[in-house]
Amino acid sequence: MSQPRPRPEVPFWRRKTLAEMTDAEWESLCDGCAKCCLEKLEDEDTGEIRHTEVACRLLNLHTCRCTDYANRKRFVPDCIKLTARTVAQYRWLPSTCAYRLLSEGKDLPWWHPLVSGDAAAVHRAGVSVRGRAVPEALAGDLEDHIVEWPEWPE
Questions:
Q1: SS (H, E, C) the chain
Q2: In this predicted model, what pLDDT tens digit does every residue of 71-92 receive, in sequence order?
Q3: 138 is in which domain, residue-wise?
């Protein structure tokens, strides 16, 4: 008599809410696109958010990861700490952001490292800022660096 095949486990992001996730699960949701690490400008009158191609000074432009994540608030005081409670209030999070997707009841895309099993898939899929961002030190006036591309691909 053959043994029944074990059912594949439902991934944590499909069975838990953002608030139920462990710290390790929460951190693993970051796909490494670094779109959230681009400087943004907000129109004081309209509240409109404009994205720039200018990267935070702590962003490694090749790996698309923070060079000092644990201490980032010390060096970049306005760097936000995203939480399950605050995800919805950050309208500037890209439509491809795992935190935003899950908070909206959507699933992770095929290129997400948790789905693909490959941390570099986000770069090969053309979803990260790799090759698109400029270092803060070379940028000058942020208004000269406004771009429309942080929302790609849908």
A1: CCCCCCCCCCCHHHHCCHHHCCHHHHHHCCCCCCHHHEEEEECCCCCCEEEEEEECCCEECCCCEECCHHHHHHHCCCCCCCCCCCHHHCCCCCCCCHHHHHHCCCCCCCCCHHHHCCCCHHHHCCCCCCCCCEEHHHCCCHHHHEECHHHCCC
A2: 999 999 999 999 999 999 998 8
A3: 19-142
